[in-house]
Amino acid sequence: SVSSIVPESCLLIVVGLLVGGLIKGVGEKPPILKSDIFFLFLLPPIILDAGYFLPLRPFTENLGTILIFAVVGTLWNAFFLGGLMYAVCQLGGPGLNHIGLLANLLFGSIISAVDPVAVLAVFEEIHINELLHILVFGESLLNDAVTVVLYHLFEEFASFEQVTILDIILGFFSFFVVSLGGVLVGVIYGVIAAFTSRFTSHIRVIEPLFVFLYSYMAYLSAELFHLSGIMALIAAGVVMRPYVEANISHKSHTTIKYFLKMWSSVSETLIFIFLGVSTVAGHHYWNWTFVISTLFFCLVARVLGVLVLTWFINKFRIVKLTPKDQFIIAYGGLRGAIAFSLGYLLDYEHFSMRDMFLTAIITVIFFTVFVQGMTIRPLVDLLAVKKKQETKRSINEEIHTQFLDHLLTGIEDICGHYGHHHWKDKLNRFNKKYVKKCLIAGERSKEPQLIAFYHKMEMKQAIELVESGGIGKIPSAVSTVSIQNINPQTLPLERILPALSKDKEEEIRKILRTNLQKTRQRLRSYNRHTLMADPYEEAWNQMLLRRQKARQLEQKMNNYLTVPAHRLDSPTMSRARIGSDPLAYEPKEDSENLPIITIDPASPQSPESVDLMSEEPKGCSGLPPSPEEDEEGLVMRVKEPSSPGTDDVFTPGTSDSPSNQRMLRCLSDPGPRPEPEEGEPFIPKGQ
């Protein structure tokens, strides 16, 4: 009932305090957690367990955020805390005046780093969601490089008489050497371990030994050259796991899994118990000003760093970090045994205030583990922070995950944006084409990821079935092949499929694997920069443009040639229309017995200018009108409705060609005329 309220790490520290007090009470000297024992024997199992079973997908998707928190956040905490503590020492009285700037910066670098052991111990109990867990835990793993660099840098600077600009520049470059060097050492040993596991099929007993041996050698090799041993262990575990698990037997996999869990749990227990014992046994120098200032500035630096960095990170993240997430990240910055061991490593010769540093470090560790560790669970419930959902992965989920990965990679290729999906796809192709063939034995190297996942799920379900006693009643004589036929269901006759031989079935599977699983590999890689220009594309575009212009011109012609509705115009409008084009209203030969209207085109356009000259018919003799009559004016006559096939507006003369007639029609509006019959052509076909 107590462990549901108080984290196990707190209970273990209390046990250590009781054991240390008991040892001291009987007159013996309690053992102290020495740094060599901690860094060489207790820390590696915890880091290897975390690196080997690291959830790689969420870790890589949030790698940018984790690196910003781990590198920039740790540097901010170290220098902010070191600078403020130097100011406190200068103002704090005679007991603190002798502590210089380098000593305070060294103290800030020790106390600023988030501890992976404490984070694991607390966060695994509260079951926080995967995003927050990987952000805080990933930060605690990757900030080791910054801590190691700053620690050794300030420790070396303390022995110098004068620190030059060159020393500072070299110290800056040493960060890249330490971090990338540790990763390189881990990758080399991970590849060697995977390659060795390829040849252990006939001696399965020693398979787990190679995993532990090469991982520990990676850690020792990195520490030997003052590189980051934690990053070497993580890199070795991440690199070797997919290849080793494809080569080793299922029993070896189970051995590695449970042995790592047991080993890391024992180390974690010993670390927290030794912390309690060392608190009782160690030499302490308590200074209220220094200790309280350290605790307060640690909290302030953590909160400010998380708020400022999250504001910057959210500008680039698709899934933003909410204020609740920021609070949990800031509140989850726990300190632990790494800070204590680094403080214990300090030399009395250069750091006479070592006991006061250790006292302040233990105070900060106890406050973060007890107060923050005990209150984070109720705060998560109070803020309704999303918890981790325990769901079993299915084939359906795996198919959709791969489908979305391929889809996003294709979208990035088309857009010409090389994001992490593009580089992840390149890495997967390189892995399948070259690395798997060298590090995985047999047919497993050519097995698609989906098929491998299916085999893993099948094995897991079979083990769960055996452990649950689901086949306990099956007689031993029944083979595993015939288990599925114990209660056979009779299929309808029309649905019975012909039986296939094993060879035929294997041949079909091979055909499907080669033709369906690798369709994407047969496609040519492309992007928008390498697409070839079509030589006919420009000519085709020009032809389309010409066709579009011709269509627009035809539409304009139709608008001009559209016959308006029959309506009566005023005499002024009639006169204006006739004046615009006199040729269109030539008098016809059959203009007999019609009233004649004389119109002067040059006169002002007013109703008074229209004069009825004579109502008597002219030209009764049937002769064509004379030139004198043409000079007197135009003769307008009412026509009979036109017969089909003839123009209902004017009949062109013999001298007028059809093109001239069409041009005249386009340039002028012929005036009122009867509505044409439906389907009647505008220009007669015979003309």
Automatic annotation (TrEMBL):
- List, in alphabetical order, the GO biological process terms annotated in this UniProt record: regulation of intracellular pH; sodium ion import across plasma membrane
GO cellular component terms, A-Z: basolateral plasma membrane
Q: Is Ubl conjugation given among the entry's keywords? A: yes
Signal peptide coordinates: none
The record places domain Cation/H+ exchanger transmembrane at 6-380
Where in this protein does the record put region Disordered?
A: 583-687
Q: Which domain of life is it from?
A: Eukaryota
Q: Where is the composition biased (Polar residues)?
A: 652-662
Q: Which InterPro entries match?
A: Cation/H_exchanger_CPA1, Cation/H_exchanger_TM, NaH_exchanger, NHE-1-like, NHE_CaM-bd
Membrane protein topology class: Multi-pass membrane protein
Where is this gene product found? Basolateral cell membrane
Q: Which family does it belong to?
A: Belongs to the monovalent cation:proton antiporter 1 (CPA1) transporter (TC 2.A.36) family.
**What name goes with this protein?**
Sodium/hydrogen exchanger
Species this protein is from = Helopsaltes ochotensis (Middendorff's grasshopper-warbler)
Encoding gene (name): Slc9a1
